[in-house]
Amino acid sequence: MRAARMAAETGAKVALAEEYRIGGTCVIRGCVPKKIMMFASSHSARIEDAAAFGWNVSGGGFEWSRFWPRLRAELDRLESVYRANLERAGVEVFDQRAEIEDPHTVGLADGRKFVCKHILIATGGKPFLPSNTPGIDLVGTSDDIFLMPELPKSVLIVGGGYIACEFSFILNGLGVETTQYYRGAQILRGFDDDAREHIAAQMGMRGIGLSVNVDVARMERRDGGILVKATDGREATFERVIYATGRRPNSAGLGLERAGVPLGGSGQIEVDGYSQTRVPSIYAIGDVTNRVNLTPVAIREGAAFVRTVFSADPTKVDHSNIPSAVFTQPEFGTVGLTEAEAARQERIEVYSTAFRPMQNSFVDRNERAFFKLIVSKATRRILGVHIIADGAGELIQLAGVALRAGATKEVFDTTVAVHPTMAEEIVLMDSPIRTA
Ligand code: NDP
Using CA atoms, how far apart are residues 242 and 139, in angstroms rounded to an integer? Predict the structure, then answer.
């Protein structure tokens, strides 16, 4: 959408084809509905806390039947806003599938063909399911969560990545009995180890049944649900099983082989720094290229494509130090290197603290906030920031600016604290907990 709109604004004649709904994964079945569900879910803890703060909070509980139509209406509204923005920019929208016929020809499902100077592929990704697990046809994916007319009483979430962890917290907060199986030793592989442990502990405190080193061996339909036999021999029945075992580039059947565009081992479209494939007229951006699979990165790649192709300003996207957030409860914001990555690269100092925020102490909630800075011994620059706290998604955006500006530990130390906040801890950690 961004690339189409920006290209049209340069005066190019632009058409866009979409076979499902305008908005893509992020708006229709990803970030946006997920975040709205997270807001809904986070009220369960808030309502408990409100009682401890002296509010009379009575009865009730969450009703999916009141929330869900509103969520769907909001997605409809957003879709129409995006469509209107495209049309206002002069983009012609075709609500159907498109396939590439040759380096300059795109065919639509209805048989129409278009000859174009440039083709941009931004078809995103699709949930991946391990097809060799018996009973895999019984499970759902993140795509299905937003389409559920009713909330299940119990759910098993399989996986340990962003999507699995976010939905464990969301569904647990909405009152669903939530169990999560992860095949490895600790969830959120690739993130900072201390942060991973902190979030796993947090899951326990919220009542999520997380089991690590466990995978699904087989599944069968049983009255009232799905019987799951796990690799460690345990058996349990869940009303629904949701797999969040990764996503793969959505590149199949687009006619890429026919046009001579090479694909990598996971089906990703191979591109250079300008998002150009080996076929000069064909570019690709976003998850279908499997670089950094985040919406804002795809948007940057789309903007860089427009500058490169339509504004004679060859532009690459810098994929380093990208801040991101995992919407656990509390949230996890992260930017830069993990401790292990930084220690492999150079000598470092690690600053970290975990504490009960004021509002949690007041209501006897045991949950802790977590702040961690990784600092280069040689340059004093901050190499990584990892925060688990309410609003960490908001905080990490600014930490990302500091990191890109090359801020040193001394810049943090000489910044006056904002009191009383949780975030002040980030400028008050004066002794390293370890060096490596
Ligand atoms: P991830 O790649 O983050 O995680 C996949 C998980 O599934 C891993 O824990 C992986 O285990 C496990 N897994 C993979 N294959 C199997 C298998 N065959 N059997 C059992 N477990 C398996 O993918 P997600 O689906 O969570 O998310 C996809 C992408 O979407 C992310 O990479 C992220 O970029 C993006 N995203 C971003 C969000 C955000 O910014 N807040 C939110 C949601 C998604 P192992 O670790 O052992 O490989």
Answer: 6
Q: Which two tokens stand for residue 112?
A: 């129409």
What confidence score (pLDDT) does residue 224 get? 84
Q: Distance (Å, rounded) from C-alpha 353 to C-alpha 272?
A: 41
- Give the pLDDT of residue 60: 73
Expressed in angstroms and rounded, the spacing between residue 6 Cα and the centre of ligand 1 is: 31
Under DSSP, the state recorded for 428 is T
Give the whole-angstrom CA distance, residue 320 versus residue 221. 45
* pLDDT for res 58: 83
Q: What's the chain's length in residues? A: 436
- The stretches in the chain having pLDDT less than 70 are none
The ligand 1 atom nearest the CA atom of 164: 26
pLDDT at 276: 98
Distance CA 210, CA 117 (A): 52
Rounded distance from Cα 163 to ligand 1 centre (Å): 6
Token pair in block for residue 314:
């060859």
| 419 in active site | yes
Nearest in space to 256 (alpha carbons), one of 274, 270, 272: 270
Nearest atom (ligand 1) to Cα of 127: 25
Q: For residue 216, is it left (φ>0), alpha (ψ between -120 and 50) or beta?
A: beta
Kindly give the distance from the C-alpha atom of residue 85 to the centroid of ligand 1, in angstroms, as a whole number. Answer: 32
Q: Which atom of ligand 1 is nearest to the CA of 324?
A: 40
Candidate of 183, 266, 396 to mutate for ligand 1, largest count of ligand atoms within 8 Å of Cβ: 183
**How does pLDDT run across 20-66, given as a tens digit for each residue?**
999 999 999 999 999 999 999 999 999 999 999 999 998 778 999 99
Residues with CB under 6 A from ligand 1: 130, 158-164, 166, 182-184, 189, 215, 244-247, 293-294, 324-327
Cα–Cα distance between 428 and 335 in angstroms, integer?
A: 19
